[in-house]
Structures are given as structure tokens and as C-alpha cells.
Amino acid sequence: MDSQLQEFEKGHADFQKVKFNQSKERFKKLVSEGQHPKALFIGCSDSRVMPAMITGSKAGDLFIIRNIGNFVAPYKPDADFHATASAIEYAVTVLEVSDIIVCGHSHCGAIEALYKDIKETSENTHTIKWLELGKEAKKVAMLAYKNDSKERMLRYTEKISVVYQLDNLLSYPGVKRRVEEGTLHLHGWHYHMENGDIEYYDDENYEFKPLIQNAEG
To answer: What is the bridge-based pairing of β-strands 198-202 and 207-210?
Structure first.
């Protein structure tokens, strides 16, 4: 067996012996009562970002979607396969979550790729297409930070991209209906991997602010 898989196997054994036993009743309850997550969390597939860890959530708390760049494609009612869209619809109309969090993060490879000239091949065609969802954020960032450092421009692109994904969420009929009813709330977050901080998007003042300060307030 591959060395990395041996490490995961040991981790699973430790989980069964310790963590599962510590929460055995909770897991049984999740099976018997089904899932009732508190929120839909749309995050990046980046292996360095762990939704449960950065939110302190437990099994059953978050319904999670992860993809390249934590992007949300606009609603498109066709007969194609739409994994992210399907999960959004399920969370909103079946699980009836009360909140949706779109969480971007610092040093995002997808955002950085927007500024690179990547040649499309048969091996990356879906990725190149998917990255188009970040182009509008890139345009805004290049105008706002054209005379600034690349790092500051990348951090701004990551944040403004989150705002665009929130806008795209509102193109989904079920999301729009429930937001208008006041039964669903949308949140934009940006996670800083360097220090573990999360900022949230304040849509009244059009800026990102520390989440902890908001929670304490």
C-alpha cells in the first residue's frame, strides 16, 4: 500500500477508536434523524482549507460544496450535468438551510491562475472553462490595483470574486425566492491561511471586516 494511504488508514483507525467513540450517540442520532445542517458552505477544493476546522463545526453542521476557486456558476436550466448547482438546489430546497457561506481564501491557486497565460489542452479544458467564472473579479481588481503590488491585487481579487459568487447565487430561483422571503441569508467570507483569520463581507458598507469582531458584537 502507498505510504500516504497507510497514513490515512492509521488515521481512520484512530478515528474509530477515539473520536467516533467519543461522539457515538451523536453519529447514531445523525443516522436515525437524518441530516439537518445549519448552513451550506461553498469553499475551495484547496487541501489547506478545512471547513470543519476553521469553523469549529461538528458532523451534521455543514453541507459542504468544494470546487476550484469556490466559484458558483450562474443558474442555467439545461439538460447538462451541474454538480455545484445541484448541491445548491438540494441544500436550499430539500435541506432548507438557513444560511449559505461562500468562503474564499488567501493564496488561492484558481485566482492566481486568472493572471497566467495557460494554454488549453485536452487535459485541462474543463478547468480553463471553469476559471471564466473569475474573469469579472479580475477585471475589477486590475482597475483598482493596477498601480499596486501583485500580492495586494491577488488578495483583492480573491475577495471581490466572493462577492460575484454571491451575486451568482441569486440567479437560482430557489435561492432568490427564499432570500426575498427572509428565510435564507447569504454570507461572503475570506479566510487568511497565514494567521487563521476570517473576514466577512459587509454588504452595507461594501467592505470586508473581521468575523470575530462581528461575532463578539
So the answer is: antiparallel
